[in-house]
DNA sequence: AGAGGATGTCGAAGCGCTTCGACAGCTTTC
DNA sequence: GAAAGCTGTCGAAGCGCTTCGACATCCTCT
């Protein structure tokens, strides 16, 4: 293993000079710099991460805490994780993958051991038990998701309230009056995951303003659960012509069931989905949807965190504006 | 930040004693150990990761390299990643998430900097460009997937050849003679991803033994691509009654199309899928399938790697035996 | 009783890096 | 032309831990 000292000797300079070439924290003459850089290349030198962390008390590592559960939004999580990892690299950071399993202790362990310089938490619940710890250890951190109390925290998320509003607006504009909302699994609401509630809030408040009739039903996803949910909805509100779906694994079953019942999409019924772009495009009917900007969220989170670590910028809540893309699943409401 | 020295002072012992309590590498009297452990708890001590890594040249970190591409098997990847992370924790390791973006350089960087003690590579291609590096730096590593040349490497994977064989056997047993194989996207084959080719190998060789007629077609997945692929298949082999599908995003479109054409599953046509359990269960027809044991693969990979790092065990290729679960999508071939 | 072996603890060296202060050799300034 | 200021480089200290050899003690054999 090549060390700084060996590089220094090879280049005929002192160790500190090599260090300054690497960090750029002091000015170095052009000739010296080039000599050192050449030695580094020739010897194939890579600074030892541990030594660096010890001496500088900076590990250049960001911890990413993903939920253990794999019951929802897996592709979104993955996309975020990958975006976090690649964005982090462009800022010189690596990413440590923590699962929710360890629970809040992970926060303590990571901040106590100096393993990571900061953390990004995904799947934040409204009243997340990791937050008190985060505040008390004042770990630089960024949340993906929005807890109930955001004071002193930096958060990044899609503006789900606006998303909900956007969906009903679109359907209202097309003339739909009776709208059913197929939501996430009941467990998601029980857990008080913020995004589900905020979406609902947006749907309802804008729906009320527009004078729509809204019916919200959580749904486990999958074909069977969707069948039950759908028939209940149609029993209760036979005039339903618009659907807003916020549950990836309910989308395709819903389309299949509607088709099966002879309800044509979008002629008889319009469907708007809140889901990743890929799902919307690959569905059996190309879906009018509000995309979940997973990459953006990951990127923003890293950038906020890096800014914090650099002493720039403070606590901020970044809500990304939703964008609705009209595709083949929504159209004018049928004449009464 | 609490240091070892502070703990030592608080407990009235030397620093080395505390270190030995922590590592268990020398015997310590019960009373001393308890005193030290108490101090650790009271002060909330966490060993500094950097210092530890520097002194011991062990970081207790495993690097996990996931593919950048998110075009296939995303939930599987995620499940593996999570299994890797949680299993690693039970062995005292953390996981560093590397994306394919950096390419082979990541191997150099990680092994050069001592950032990680070993690595796990996912999505290994038959002739993967990371392998020479792995061999030359002799990084302890485990591959998930099987390259062409496995000498000197430890690999973990599903036995895809046996998986292919199992699928055709099942269909043959039910009396199907004309079988179509819906494969991964053409790009996957072009990239020479081992698992796709091995599956095909298993399908073909067992199919030949059983005297079946096999037709293999790659497919992009999604509704439209599947529609084209299916109609081509049925043009060419109208008597096809069995389908083997190895492409998550083709499964549901296939079922929808068959339904639409009035071909009942499993009465007229049987479908066997190679996919994660969840997909099989949630499909509109519960699918007879060979599950991709993502968790198992992640767990095995970590265990192999940890064994290597502990100096136990050597190079080995672990192929997990496939298991076919019969569900509602396969049945006896229709009478001619 | 004294040699020899366990057992438990300590001191010190050193892992590879960053960073601070020092300083030699310049150039600028009045 | 001496004082003052830059620039570029170096030496040394120290980050917090592990680990090696040394050394008391206390047992256990003959």
Helix content range of the residues of chain A, please? 40-55%
% residues in beta strands of chain A: 15-25%
Determine and state the CATH class of the largest domain in chain A. Answer: Alpha Beta
Specify Rg of chain A, calculated over alpha carbons: 25 Å
Quick one: biggest sheet of chain A? Answer: 6 strands, parallel
Tertiary shape of chain A:
elongated
Account of the 3D structure:
The first copy, chain A, has helices spanning 4-11, 15-23, 30-43, 49-56, 74-90, 105-113, 130-136, 160-173, 186-190, 194-209, 223-236, 248-260, 277-282, 294-309, and strands spanning 61-66, 94-99, 118-121, 141-144, 154-158, 178-183, 213-218, 242-245, 270-275, 288-291, 317-320, 324-325. Chain A is α/β, with parallel strands linked by helices. Chain A folds into three domains: 4-47, Orthogonal Bundle (434 Repressor (Amino-terminal Domain)); 61-158 and 294-320, 3-Layer(aba) Sandwich (Rossmann fold); 160-291, Response regulator (Rossmann fold, 3-Layer(aba) Sandwich), CATH 3.40.50. In chain A, helix 5 (74-90) packs parallel to helix 14 and helix 11 (223-236) crosses helix 12. Chain A is elongated, with a radius of gyration of 25 Å. The mean pLDDT of chain A is 93. The interface between A and B is large, with 57 and 57 residues. The structure holds a DNA duplex (30 and 30 nucleotides).
């Amino acid at each position: 293993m090549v060390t700084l000292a060996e590089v220094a000797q090879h280049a005929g300079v002192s160790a500190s000079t090599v260090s300054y070439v690497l960090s750029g924290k002091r000015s170095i003459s052009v000739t010296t710099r080039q000599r050192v850089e050449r030695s580094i290349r020739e010897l194939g030198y890579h600074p030892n991460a541990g030594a660096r962390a010890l001496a500088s008390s900076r590990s250049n590592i960001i911890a990413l805490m993903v939920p253990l559960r794999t019951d929802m939004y897996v592709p979104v999580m993955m996309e975020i994780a990958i975006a976090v990892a690649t964005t982090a690299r462009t800022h010189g950071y690596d990413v440590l993958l923590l699962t929710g399993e360890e629970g809040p202790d992970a926060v303590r362990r990571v901040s106590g051991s100096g393993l990571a310089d900061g953390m990004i938490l995904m799947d934040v619940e409204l009243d997340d038990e990791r937050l008190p710890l985060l505040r008390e250890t004042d770990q630089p951190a960024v949340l993906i998701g929005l807890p109930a109390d955001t004071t002193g925290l930096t958060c990044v998320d899609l503006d789900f309230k606006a998303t909900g509003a956007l969906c009903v607006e679109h359907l209202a504009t097309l003339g739909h009056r009776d709208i059913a909302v197929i939501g996430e699994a009941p467990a998601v609401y029980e857990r008080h995951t913020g995004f589900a509630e905020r979406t609902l809030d947006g749907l309802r408040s804008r729906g009320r303003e527009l004078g729509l009739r809204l019916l919200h039903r959580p749904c486990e996803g999958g074909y069977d659960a969707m069948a039950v949910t759908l028939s209940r909805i149609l029993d209760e509100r036979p005039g339903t012509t618009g659907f807003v779906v916020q549950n990836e694994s309910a989308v395709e079953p819903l389309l299949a069931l509607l088709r099966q019942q002879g309800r044509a999409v979008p002629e008889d019924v319009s469907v708007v989905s809140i889901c990743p772009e890929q799902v919307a495009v690959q569905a059996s009917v190309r879906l009018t949807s509000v995309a979940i900007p997973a990459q953006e969220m990951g990127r923003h989170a890293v950038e906020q965190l890096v800014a914090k670590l650099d002493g720039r910028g403070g606590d901020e809540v970044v809500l990304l504006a939703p964008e609705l893309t009209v595709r083949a699943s929504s159209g004018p409401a049928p004449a009464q």
